[in-house]
Amino acid sequence: MKRAILAVVLLFSIVSVWAEQKSTLSGYIKDAKTGEVMISATVYVEELEAGLVTNQYGFYSLTIPDGQYTVRYSFVGYRSHTEQIVLNGHKQLNVEISPLVEQIDQVTIRAGGQNRNVKSAEISLIKLDMKEISQVPVIFGEKDILKSIQLLPGVKSAGEGNSGYYVRGGNADQNLILLDEAPVYNASHLMGFFSVFNSNAIKDVQLYKGGMPAKYGGRLSSVLDITMNDGNTKQFGASGGIGLISSNLTLEGPIIKDQGSFIVSGRRTYADAFLKFLPDSTISNTSLYFYDFNLKANYRVSDKDRIYLSGYFGRDVLGFKDLMNIDWGNSTGTIRWNHLFGNRLFLNSSFIYSNYDFKQGADFNDFSMSMLSGIEDYNLKEDFQFYFDSNNTFKWGGNLIYHSFMPGHVDSDFEGFIGTSVDDRYAWDAAVYLSHESKIGSRLQLNYGLRYSYFQPVGPGDYYTFDTYGIVLDTINYQKGETIAQYGGIEPRASVSFVLSEHNSIKASYNRNRQYVHLISNATSGTPLDSWIPSSNIVQPEVADQFALGYFRNFDNNTWETSIEAYYKNLQNQIEYKNGADLLSNPLIESQLVFGEGRSYGLELYVKKRTGKLTGWVSYTLSRTEKSFDEIDNGAWFPARHDRTHDFSITGIYQINPKMSFSASWVYYTGDAVTFPSGKYFVDSQLVNMYTERNGYRMPEYHRLDLGLNLITKKRDRYESSWNFSIYNAYARENAYSISFIQSEDDPNVTIAEQLSLFKIVPSVTWNFKF
Amino acid sequence: MKKVSFILLSLLVLVSCTKIIDIELNSATKRLVIEAKISDQSVPPFVKLTRTMDYFNPENPELVSGAIVTLRSDVGESEVMEEVSEGIYKAVQIKGTPGVTYSLTVQDGDQSYEADAYLPFPVRIDTTHHFIRENRTPRDNISGYMLSLTFTDPADKTNYYRLDALKINIDTTGRHQNGSTSTVMTSDVLYNGGQTTNMLNHDQAYEPGDTVIVKLISIDEKVYHYFQQLKESAGMRAMFSSSAPANPETNLQNGAMGYFAAESVDMRMVIISDQ
Predict the structure, then answer these.
(1) Would you call B242 and A472 a contact, using CB atoms and an 8 Å cutoff?
(2) How far apart, in Å, are the Cα atoms of A155 and each of A129, A560, A596?
């Protein structure tokens, strides 16, 4: 470790000081139509063949020798803008670029940055194009970023119609999901069929499958960084959609023109409206829906200061007559302050609040019952970015989180009821990081950094030690603020690219991640009852090391993008449930867990056609994910449930004419690894299944075709009306959701296998408007 | 609380369809299944031996004859159990006594299986109580009387219980037959030394006039875990559970399926009356 630190110090000192007179060109890049700042837009100085991309707030800063330059500002799907600049002193230049009007036979605009996928050191990074997503067919016609990323290599769906995902063999809880920097703890609505992200309110989505920059931490497998729209700073506007199952409305506009703006976006489903038609009164009296709001406002206080306020609030509601009412959801809030020191040092300070809670109330005839569980975070974060020169950027910062975990309070006035409330858990979670992005010569680009994370569960509360059966050996009571355990460690991160030519490059990355909070999931698909627990005296932090190697090549003037990546990931202190574990509001939940290791390796292929009438991509993942626990099959390696050998998808969008586009996607993957019985016997006259090995069987293979049609019916300067038709599972494949083994009702000696399939064919239609 | 996930899953089932499928399962080596019980009641110690079979085999389980079954106790008793009918073995001398640890040896061909079980001191039922519950949620069509049992846990050590409610059916000729059994597993980890009430029939309701035999059975830790896991592995819970299904952990050594239980029992008969 010492050697690593030394290497970092050495590399930093290489960045020597030039004697030459230098000046800084800095500013913001914005969308000319809406005034939204552009994330990852390119600034390129032709004379120097040097450039960089804007940060998350649309800011750029280039320190270059004084002189006369041609500077080009560009972004995919936008007309690039060129400025002739005479630099002989610091200069601030805010630039607005216009979106390309949808032209069918448009000439590909050559712009610096078109081969950024080849040149940058970023490996294992997926950037979603929000416009592209809106054209991909989806279930219920509800476009969804979490379902769109599942069509990309290395990302696997958590199951039929599900928004949950697995990245490179990691578990679902090993994905860090950030919405405007706030962690989202439960990203699904309605049993996972919808994600909590309302696409209409989202500007930018980036998914790191590996090689995460040092500024991200806390989860092992991936980072999904989602940025909300800022709102139109030029004029008021409204857009929305009305669908069979949900509707949404977005309002946005300037607070003061070009100074600040706001956006409010809301969404509500009415799936339960259909339940009313069912004859069974207990079901038709059920209410089941969700709603969510995204709010964001920003205001430019001065040339150097900007304040952002963003929030998300969403809830799912499930009720039966007046007897039971359950609701759950996330709320997040972020206050951010961007400040520019001089013109090269950018500081973002954030105060972040995240909350997930689950509430249930039930009223029985002679008693009532209630349950409450959740997690709450307060997070303070400082991020500095220092644009040293056109080849070197330094980033450093840190954060401090206070977590409160509420694993479950159960209360009842039932006579003789024993409260099974689980003690609340509290913890401090801190990290500091330093990273350096460096271009060395014209071929080598290096991003590396170090992160140190620290986690400290604190009292009050009772903590336990257990015997092998999970029976309490000892109980220790901690006072408020008293330290229960301390964990910490260095997390090195590095990625490098070596450009072979304009069109191809080789990249490699290594990252170590630590995870201190863990999800205890009660079912195979996400349910609102899933609860988060902290590392404690018993649960150790999870650790992952990942190596990735890739070859990137573009063809035909960057029309085609291709890549092949290989990865190997090693996971420590993984969590599994004991046989027959009781996980629901169990105060001794840690006694139900076993700990072991995991490994995952694979090969990912990706081919994308970016421009032309036909666009789309093909992705294929060949992988293996295995786990080993001393308590399971004597430590033998067994396939993880989501170990799918082959995972293939093809997505195509065909622009028939400027007003009509057709899209299709087809997915195929190997069935999940499952445990089926290999025999049976009877105990006390009851049938018992006999199992021989963990996850020794496979579910049937999964495949599905989805079709979509987008139709713009009216398009004026200020008004647009369009229709979206989609068919999910177009050839009605009965994909297995689960297979259960049951006794025949006629003869208890006869056993049968029954397959449950969810959605056979789901057509949907949505009308969208914008003015 | 477990109901909530059932209900959510039930709603999910509404849009779904099921079908019987053909699936190929491995043919595992046959293993011996031992069901052995000794109790402080008048019933003599009893062992039933069968074998596991292929999953889709519709035949009756094979009974295992000719095994040498030996029962011993830590107070020096020892007896070879007699095979009273095919696969059924009984002890005539040894009677279950609280506070005694029993060991069972089954010699089946050249394989030998062993298990130990401690027979705890009995805990008495304080009272039973029944009340009406109405049908209240989808897929939960239980309507009728619920039965609860209250007992006081001794504070001196960790206790493990199995609560059985056995409904007695009376057929047209007036004969009594054993009907359905509801089982609840509970240990005093959460209520050591306190009085506790447990609902017995979660999966069925009783009608006025029903006769129900209620048993409070004290068992040792290993036997408790066996029945706990056995219960978890059956039913709808297991189908959607995130923990993969597995064989219940038994106190039998050497790879046999089943259990050897030593039980002390307190029993009551309840006749459900109109309220």
Answers:
(1) no
(2) 17, 21, 23
